[in-house]
Amino acid sequence: MNVLLFLLVGVIAGWLAGGLVMHLVAGIIGALIGGLVLAGWGPSLGDALLGSVLKAAIGAALAVLILRLIKRS
Hints:
Layout lengths: L1 H16 L3 H17 L10 H25 L1
Helix pairs in contact: 1-2, 1-3, 2-3
């Protein structure tokens, strides 16, 4: 269930970043990495579902930001 939620968060983040295929892919990868890697790390960010969504959103946002920085140079 959480993986599907991470995918949804990643697609939304990628779409908000510009909707290009690379942004969508970066958002999905970032959400999966953020959601899974940060799952056992750091303080709780609310209830379990909200915390998972926030961590996935952080991962997706960072991945999209890194992609944009790479594309600029």
